[in-house]
Amino acid sequence: MTGENFTEDQARAYMKALLPKLDYWKRCAELSDGGQLEAFNKKR
Hints:
By secondary structure, this protein is mainly alpha-helical. It has one domain. The protein has helices at 8-18, 23-31, 36-43. It is elongated and about 50 Å long. It starts with 7 loop residues before the first helix and ends with a helix.
């Protein structure tokens, strides 16, 4: 994107706004355990 009428900052801002709205990322957030698995693994 950075070569196609977008600066790097503009492309970064666009993707930062777009990605959380994609279905894939919504499902990941819904299925997330809030970091519980990582905390459990650190205790082991």
